[in-house]
Structures are given as structure tokens and as C-alpha cells.
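Lab notebook, bench 4. Still working through the backlog of constructs that have no structural model yet. Next entry is a single chain of 431 residues. Request: give me the C-alpha cells for it.
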Amino acid sequence: MSKSRTSIYPMLAVNFIGTLGMSLVLPFLIFLVERFGGNAIIYGLVASTYPFFQLIGGPLLGRWSDIYGRKKVLFLSQVGTFISWVIFLIAMLIPVTRITNVRSGILGNFVLTLPLLLIFIARAFDGLTGGNVSVANAYLADITEDKDRSGVYGKLSVSTNLGFIFGPALAGLLSVTVYGEVLPVISAILISFAGILMIVFLVPEPKTHDLHGPQTLVDGSQYTDIQVGASSNLDKHGFLEVIRMQGIFNLLLIYFLIFLGYSIFYAAFPVHAANNLMWNAATLGLYFSLLSLLLVIVEGPVLTWASKRCSDTSLLTFGSFVLCINFVLLFSSTDLFTYCALFFFAVGNGVMWPSLISILSKTAKKEHQGAVQGASISFVGLASIIGLIAGGFMFSSLGAGAFLIAGAMMLSAFLLSIKMGPFRQRAQEDR
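Model written out:
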């Protein structure tokens, strides 16, 4: 199937329902952790469990998708998500059985219970099989032309943000029923199963790269150099080999810095909003819903317009600089500047993030898309682990100054993106 004939919309739908299923549970996860014996620090560890295990599974699944095909690995990943939500539901239905009391100077006092342990297992299993993002990025790189790449990844981000808009709202509606938080988890299971069906019936296997097909020799005969599912040089491109590829490490470092800043923000901002801005849960939820809505607008029509007039590198540089302004505004700790920051966050992230994914996909060779995208997930996972755990400690010590630390991460990404300009120009000339 040619690139021009393969629709991107089944993949966007798979990405949307994956995000929708995950965001259904996020609004009340902190309350479940506390109910099952944990504390705020344990909640941070639960939140970081997914990216920690994704750090392990992401590169492996990405490489497998290069060797065995995108669709098979997408199916495996979605099945893993389905199983993880089944484990999560079991944790909610079984009695709260105490395993041991823990008194720690670092983790604080908490009770390790069987449901709490199962939640850790569920998040770990989902992270280990959580290659959806890296494989989806590689899949879209397979079926789109370079000139369309930024806009396509913008649509992918739109599908993600739509999931984050509708998920918490649906969770709020379902959780007020007599079934409480159980119904949103059941919904997440059903949504995950719908994702499995979509992958099976609606997502075709793309021609991952040209080497999968017959190659014509000088004498006119044909041979097949690499077949999907066969052993080849592709399975030798591990993590270290990927980051040694020309231009890849700098891009992955930008990935790391941006997600480190994001993770510090998402760990510190809810505490900042509650303690400094005196917001309640409804106001905080409205703020994040408005942010997701603005991101949909920016990553949709705005990015489509901008990508036709500006290079990916220019959009990356512009977006990372705008994000720096966002974090400076958050430091002011006033409602007015906080809502102004919302606009800068949406514009900066909306044009920067799809452009960065596009640059990475264009820099990587076709046969290494899965491995490179998997390595990017490792950098994202590492940044998320560090940021989610450190963000709370930073806010405790620095208050709103934590946002300046996050801003410094974005400033570093901005400076690196300027450095990437000459490389991208040479790469385009070589294509």
C-alpha cells in the first residue's frame, strides 16, 4: 500500500482511545492510592512506575516493530494495556488486605496493602508493553511524505489532547454513580478492548521500509534482502547504536530536557495551585481542560498553516522559546499571569512538539524508525521519572521557583534547537 493510499485516521483513532482510557482514571488515582494505604510520595512513585517500565519496554518494542512489523507490535502493546486495566480492576474489587506497615524517613509512613501492590503491578505492566507512542510515530513516518510529516504529527497530538479533554470529563460523570470509581475503570477496559479490535480490523501493516520488498540487481533479477520477521541487521541496532547515529543524540537530548521541564511542571503545579493560588479541584480541572482545548486548536489549524510556511526546525526553536516565557509567567503566582501562561504553554507546545517528532522521523533512516522512536521513549521515560519525583521536592524547597527550573530546561532545549539548524539544513541537502 503506497503512502498516499494509507489513511492516517485509524491510527489517530487508536491513539485517541488509548489516551481516553488512560485519562479516565487519572483524576481519582491519588484518592485510590491513599485509600489503599499510600501517601503523597507513594502516589508519586505510582505515577513514575509507568514511565520507568516504559524506559525498558519502549526501545525493545520499537526495534521489534522494525523487524516484525508495526501492526503486530501495536497489537501486543494494546493487549498489554488491556491486561493492565484488568489487573487494576481486580485491585479495586478485592478486600484491602494489609501486607506490612512501612515507616521510612524518605517515603514516610504508609501501609503496603494487596490492592496497592496490584496497582503498582498494573502500572508496571502497562509501561512495559507501552510502546504505542513510539510505534505510532514510526507507523506515521512510514505512510507519510516528509513534507506532510509535521502536520500529521500535529494531528496525532490533537488526538492525544482530545483524549485528555474527554477522559476526565467522562470520569467525573461515571464516578458519581453508585458504582463509584469502578465504572470508569470498567470503561477503560472496554475502551482498551475497542483499541485491540481497531488495530486488528482497521490498521493495515505498512511497508516499513523499502528493504522489505524485492530488490532489483544489475542483471535484472530480484531478491529480497530483508523480510519482516526474519533475522537481519535491524535487530543489532540497540540503544547505544541508535544514539550514535548522526544528529540523533542531540534530538533525544532535546526530548529529555523538554519532558523534564514538563514533568517538573505537572508535579509542582497542582500543589502550587492549591496552596499559593488557593484553587480547588474544579478550578484546576477547568484549567487543564482549557489547556487541552487550546492545544487542539494550535496543533490543528494553526500548525497546519504554520508548517506550510516555516521549517520544522524554526517551529521547534520558536516553540521552545515561547515555553520559556510560560514558566516565567507561572513564577509570578497570580491568577492573571497564570492564565496568560496558559496561552503561551499551548502555543509553545502546540508548534514545538509535533515539529520535534517530525525532525526525529526525518533524521532517522527508514529502516530504523522503530528503534529511534523507541529510544526517544526511553529518554521521555527517564525525564518523567526524574521530573515527577523531583518536582514535588523542588516545590517543597523552592516554591514557585520550581517553575524557573523547568524554564531553564526549556531554555536549554531552545539553545540546542538553534544548534540543530545547520545540521538539518545539510541533511535536507543530502536527501
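Notes after review: Residues 208-236, 425-431 have pLDDT under 50 and may be disordered. The CA atoms of residues 101 and 288 lie 36 Å apart. Flag for follow-up if needed.
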